[in-house]
Amino acid sequence: MTSVARPFRRLSAQRGAALITAMLIAAMAAVMVSGMFWSQWSAIAREQTAREQTQARWILRGAIDWARLILREDARTSTVDYIGEPWSVPLAEARLSTFLAARGQDSSTLPDAWLEGRIGDAQRRFNLRDLAPAGSVDPQALAAFQRLCTALQVSSSVAGEIAQGIAAATAIGSATQPNAALPLQRLQDLARLGPTVAQALPRLAAEITLLPQATPVNANTADAPVLAAVLGVDAETAQSLVAARQRAYFRNLGDISVLLKQGTTVNPVLVSVATGYFDAVARVRIGNLEYAERALIQRAGLFTQVVRIERVPPWLAAAPQGAAAGGAS
To answer: To pair with 236 at 20 to 30 A between CA atoms, which of 2, 202, 291, 307?
Structure first.
């Protein structure tokens, strides 16, 4: 019995080994096939995402050109900029095809895209470039910025540090010096000035900007703390100015002066009623892809140009609740 059972046991073992080998081969083949499918699917998904991103960028370029057209047309009719003009009305999210359909154009070949955006006044904030427009600190601008820092609960010493940094970066001929300071182009660049400035930036960011050149604050769009700082008035007076412009916008600096205490002067270098720089923010949604960009647009008369474009989080394109687009950029 023993001699007869051994061949059967050996045969059974061989069959078992062959079955296990076949199962392993099948498993390996399944893994390889699934890997190939996954690789192919990933390549298709990447290609689709890249195509959608390209489409989104082209759509946003068109939206920025549209913003330039709106600003140019506004300049034809008015030399004053205030909240309530067409440029300050935000565009709620709308299907892109509706714009072409309204013009009688075929939109069947367009992707299912949604567009949202707004234009904001870049001069509603205090422009740090005013602190040292020619490479030396301007005492009046520095005093105004110190008042703004105090209102925002930031040490006034921060104003001095930033002013010195702006002066060093914009001094004539500084770029040719071996130890020249790096150029300051955006607010985040100010963090290089030191840890104190870096810590203060989050508190200041909503009320300051850094434009390519010195610009006055637009009294028709600025928040009360900025108005109080550049006019040298108290918070209550600044709030009364905000309320007054809601009833009737300021047509000139004289409209502001009559609302101030007798003897208070309005510095035209720091205060204006018109704007030369605007922020245009637009968001496009194609399927699950959301893409947003912000452009700084300069306007001089009827001439408009894009100074810079940067990608931003999509939520920035939405108009803040309870605020006009021109006053909340």
So the answer is: 202
CA dist 7 and 110 (Å) reads: 73
Shared domain for 304 and 314, answered yes or no, is: yes
Looking at the fold, whether 319 and 258 belong to one and the same domain comes out as no
Token pair, residue 90, equals 């935000």
Residue 73: inside a domain, yes or no? Answer: yes
10 Å Cβ neighbour count for 89?
16
Give tens-digit pLDDT for 42-80.
665 667 667 777 788 888 888 899 999 999 999 999 999
Residue 52 included in any domain: no
Domain containing 305 equals: 62-124+275-327
Average pLDDT (209-219) is: 96
Residue 256 lies in a domain: yes
Of 181, 210, 239, the one marking the end of a domain is 210
Rg (CA), the chain: 31
As to burial, measured by CB atoms within 10 angstroms (0-12 exposed, 13-18 middle, 19+ buried), residue 125 is buried
Say how far apart CA 268 and CA 6 lie, in whole Å: 109
- Neighbour count for residue 185 (Cβ, 10 Å): 12
CB 230 within 8 A of CB 128: no
Of 51-55, 107-111, 311-315, the least confident: 107-111
Domain count along the chain? 3
